[in-house]
Q: What sequence folds into this?
């Protein structure tokens, strides 16, 4: 399953909650009638969206079975997922985060940087978090730096500006 958002907090007293979206298509993904899934207590639970609106750039939704603020509060922090086959096809040059995780990252001159552990940020301002032998290296996910992205081959080639790999290293 693919992560498409995270429950932020309850909104109001009727069981609705604010979503931190991790999708470029929040209006479609969180539309009334949409099927969503959350991992709660080691079980994948299905939910159907019963109410949906955008507020401050974030979806506020209600789902079947969550009828009050206390029930919505219990969902805070949970990832919202959908089956991978339910994802919208993306245009060329755009990638789902889960497609990039596990990709080997090399520089254009063949230096191994590491493996993509996760992708942080929002659309248009994303960065790769590279596991580089015990430390993390942050790489902006932009075409000027990420010159080749091959999700099927699990490979990314970067042309980092001088010093980027050292400046963006977290231990």
A:
């Amino acid at each position: 399953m693919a992560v498409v958002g995270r429950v932020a907090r309850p909104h109001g007293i009727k069981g609705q909650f604010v979503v931190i979206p991790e999708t470029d298509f929040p209006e479609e993904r969180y539309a009334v009638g949409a099927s969503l899934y959350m991992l709660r207590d080691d079980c994948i639970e299905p939910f159907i969206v019963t109410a949906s609106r955008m507020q401050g750039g974030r979806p506020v939704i209600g789902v079947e079975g969550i009828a009050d603020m206390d029930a919505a509060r219990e969902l805070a922090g949970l990832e919202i997922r959908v089956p991978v086959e339910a994802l919208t096809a993306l245009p060329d040059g755009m990638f789902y985060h889960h497609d990039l995780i596990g990709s080997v990252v090399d520089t254009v001159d063949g230096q191994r940087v590491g493996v993509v552990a996760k992708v942080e940020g929002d659309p248009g301002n994303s960065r790769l978090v590279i596991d580089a032998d015990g430390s993390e290296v942050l790489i902006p996910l932009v075409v000027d730096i990420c010159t080749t992205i091959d999700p099927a081959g699990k490979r990314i080639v970067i042309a980092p500006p001088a010093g980027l790999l050292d400046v963006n290293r977290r231990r």
